[in-house]
Write a structure and sequence with these properties.
The structure is a single chain. Helices cover 70% and strands 0% of the residues. The protein is mainly alpha-helical and 231 residues long. It is elongated, with a radius of gyration of 23 Å.
Length: 231
């Protein structure tokens, strides 16, 4: 992935950086649960234990803070996936490894990812284009893994890789809105489950058997319509 914009350090001391990190985390949580438009800078300052005037030593504007959250979320998940797959050569293993890393990173930074997904529309046009471009680059990286698996006949090839990729990301991304630590599975176990569902589906029958059943059902439905019309 192309590098995302780097965020300038705020201050020279470790304490300043820790405040900045905490501000990103707390802002992501508030933007996610309260909404970007309904979160005030005064509330953000109180959340991190600062006076409102002091808050602007750690951010430029509220919108720039949202931008930093979005770019941080995408950079972290992109870096995690790239690091995880770098030593893998088998297409199916690379795809599985990417899925596992995606789920682990997304759940670890759930508030940031949720904010990026649902609030990026609140960004300025310039910032929106940057974030949208970064999302597209990440999707292209995942699409590359899908295409490799299709080329190796590990995935079906009758569906365009674009739709296969978007289906996979849809399956993975929305876990952040329902998963919690008491869900009964670890992030690693959930990643395995989702990859298995993506690779093998959820039907108990083989694809051939499922196709026969679907065709029979369609034929019966058509026959029923014909009888109704005859009456």
């Amino acid at each position: 992935m192309s590098p995302l914009p780097t965020h300038p350090d705020i201050g020279n001391g470790r304490g300043q950086l820790l405040v900045r990190d905490r501000l990103l985390v707390e802002a992501a949580s508030m933007f996610r649960y309260k909404g970007y438009g309904h979160t005030t800078t005064r509330e953000l300052a109180e959340r991190v234990g600062l006076q409102k005037a002091s808050l602007y030593h750690h951010m430029v504007t509220k919108e720039s803070l949202l931008f930093d959250i979005c770019t941080s979320a995408l950079k972290r998940i992109g870096d995690s996936v790239e690091e995880a797959v770098k030593d893998q050569t088998e297409p199916a293993v690379r795809l599985r490894t990417a899925v596992m890393a995606h789920v682990r990173s997304a759940l670890q930074d759930a508030d940031m990812h949720a904010t990026m997904l649902i609030e990026m529309r609140s960004l300025s046009p310039q910032h929106y284009e940057i974030v949208h471009g970064a999302r597209s680059q990440y999707e292209e990286m995942v699409r590359g893994f899908v295409q490799e698996a299709q080329g190796a006949r590990e995935l079906r090839r009758d569906v365009e890789s674009k739709w296969m990729t978007l289906s996979l990301l849809n399956l993975l991304n929305w876990t952040i809105f329902w998963y919690h630590s008491g869900a009964g599975v670890t992030p690693e176990e959930l990643g395995e489950i989702l990859f298995d569902i993506y690779l093998n589906g959820t039907g108990a029958r083989t694809p051939f058997e499922s196709d026969v059943i679907v065709r029979r059902g369609a034929a019966k439905a058509g026959d029923g319509r014909g009888r109704s019309a005859a009456r």
